[in-house]
Design brief:
The protein has 9 helices and 5 strands; from the N terminus they run βαβααβααβααβαα. With about 210 residues, the protein is α/β, with parallel strands linked by helices. It has one domain: P-loop containing nucleotide triphosphate hydrolases (Rossmann fold). Strands 2-3-1-4-5 form a 5-stranded parallel β-sheet, sandwiched between helices. It is globular. The structure holds adenosine-5'-diphosphate and magnesium ion (MG). Adenosine-5'-diphosphate binds next to helix 1, helix 6 and helix 8. The site of magnesium ion (MG) has 3 residues, from helix 1.
Length: about 210
């Protein structure tokens, strides 16, 4: 099912892209713009968004033991998402709220499926089982030059988590995997240039959602 089953024109929008691409910044700006148009908006994030999924997030980003084997990591992401979809996202869409999610299943497809080597079929199967295969109505994929985005993260100065600390090669593979997903589904994904001032990026995003905002 897609978020299109939701009430009254409410939409489910996911932000995707690598670390530092501006997902959290742009999710916030989009929520403000939608609220200014009179919509009720739920802003949430993955992994997390509900108490159960936030508890799983802590396990994922700071593994209490040895690094999670890739399969275990994929299962934990899918479990967190199943809780988030059941307890927060589907109820919000059923009420007629817009939902803006900072990362969703395409992050699992790009990180665990693509860069992590598990393959897209495995991740898609976990998502079908865990979350009924729920898809965003549109994915905003923020893309930009690797060095520029790394500079932003350095400026943010927050300690990197277990996934952010992975190699530049891994993150390059993530970006390539996102690109492949977007190319395969040009209607479902809007590829947005993440470079430039936040307000300029925001304007590109509003333009890419123009058909939904009419
Ligand atoms: N368009 C932009 N230009 C410059 N810096 C930005 C821009 N968008 C976000 N930032 C800054 O870059 C850092 C990463 O942005 P953030 O939204 O947290 O990215 P993400 O959620 O994708 O990791 C933050 O410090 C943020 O304030
Ligand atoms: Mg963020």
């Amino acid at each position: 099912m897609s978020g299109a089953d939701s009430k009254g024109g409410a939409r489910f929008i996911a932000f995707e892209g690598g670390e530092g691409a501006g997902k959290s910044t742009q999710a916030r700006l989009l929520a403000e713009a939608l609220r200014a148009r009179g919509h009720t908006v739920v802003v949430t994030r993955e992994p997390g968004g509900t108490p159960g999924a936030e508890a799983i997030r802590a396990l994922l980003l700071a593994p209490p033991g040895a690094p999670w084997p890739p399969q275990a990591e994929a299962l934990l992401f899918a479990a967190a998402r199943a809780d988030h979809v059941a307890h927060l996202i589907r109820p919000a869409l059923a009420r007629g709220d817009w939902v803006i999610c900072d990362r969703f299943v395409d992050s699992s497809r790009a990180y665990q499926g693509g860069a992590g080597g598990l393959g897209d079929d495995a991740i898609t199967a976990l998502h079908a089982f865990g979350s009924g295969g729920l898809r965003p109505d549109r994915v905003i994929l923020l893309e930009g030059d690797e060095a520029a985005l790394a500079g932003r993260l350095a400026a943010r100065g927050k300690a990197a988590d277990a996934i952010e600390r992975r190699s530049a090669d891994y993150h390059r593979a993530v970006a390539a995997a996102f690109r492949t997903l977007a190319e395969a589904d040009p209607h479902g994904f809007a590829r947005i240039d993440a470079l430039g001032a936040p307000e300029d990026v925001h304007a590109r995003i509003l333009a890419a959602l123009g058909d939904m905002l009419a």
